Amino acid sequence: MTVAPPNTYRAGPDERGHFGLFGGRFVAETLMPLILDLEIAWNEAKTDPAFQAELTHLNAHYTGRPSALYFAERLTEHCREAAAAAGGKGGAKIYFKRDELNHTGSHKINNCLGQILLARRMGKTRIIAETGAGQHGVAAATVAARFGFPCHVYMGATDVERQKPNVFRMKLLGAEVHPVTSGAGTLKDAMNEALRDWVTNVESTYYIIGTAAGPHPYPELVRDFQSVIGKEVREQMMAAEGRLPDVLVAAVGGGSNAIGLFHPFLDDTDVEIYGVEAGGHGLEGEEHCASLNAGRPGVLHGNRTYLLQDDDGQILEGHSISAGLDYPGVGPEHSWLHDSGRVTYVPITDTEALDAFQTCTRLEGIIPALEPSHALAQVLKIAPTLAQDKIICMNMCGRGDKDVFTVGKIMGYEL
Ligand SMILES: *Cc1c(COP(=O)(O)O)cnc(C)c1O
Fold it and tell me: Does the domain spanning 18-62+107-222 belong to CATH 3.40.50.1100?
């Protein structure tokens, strides 16, 4: 591993888990020894060639990495026509990083494989996870099945009702799904309950957190497992274009796929970076999930970060058409990248995402998940404004199979 030079955007977190003012580990005292154990195990694993070799092997043969880098020719042409219609000459080249082709249909598996190897290395015998839409629950249940661990997934009762196909997938994979009725019965409550389970079963249990949030060292280790995305893009873009992209775009829920794409490029300051938050029905009301654009710093789930909260500091629920983007917080590294100005975070509304979903499906024959449809909407906004020799790379972090029911309902199809 190379040591990052000073004044780098890639050096964080510090030894206490801080990215500037954000991150840290705000956990119950009983959890502290575990968190420290995890940190030691992670520090050993990340420099252990055998650990990295096994992960690389699984990434290749189980997940299907490297995922393709794809030139979206017809979307590029579409943006050039839009630019020409407005009297311009723009229309940057649009590339997709095809992480939706991974086993289980999204980037979540990159992180789950890394963490299950860590759990085995630590001698743990039981896996717990939280899930909102169920994508992380399915990925966690998948690796638990593959490695023979009992797996307990906490899921808000409201989400259990809304996401029945994923609940059944988890059960098929042998996981026990625990509906959580506290609060609004959504992801935030599921994460609280998973942390409670962890405190109670400290010795036996490994908690696979699904995004680049939670107490240190989770934001760092999830980022490092997901950084395979950005590392591959660097190599693939050099092979395809002989240079790095000009612009990167990714959707931000908790921020794991985004930081995975961004992190290897943070010190290439010529590369412009956009993180796309769920703008829901717009930022004026409370029907959105734009923690960075409309929240303020506070503490949730073991770290300090931007959060959606009311005047009394109560955490708000948030809304998005895409279940994977409605986490009321965001990983602490994104809060720091936001405040430092290295990454620009923008909101995209439900309607804009839905339009992009349909455009991509029709023009590229790729049905994207609603989460990356947000990123794509941002791509479609900026591509026509950039010269034709500019290159945009967007992370297509999930496939849309899971979303056809939601989209069908909005379009008036009964499925
Ligand atoms: C879970 C999920 C997200 C949101 O999680 P991040 O940690 O922000 O990446 C985005 N897209 C898809 C397809 C997901 O499954």
Answer: yes
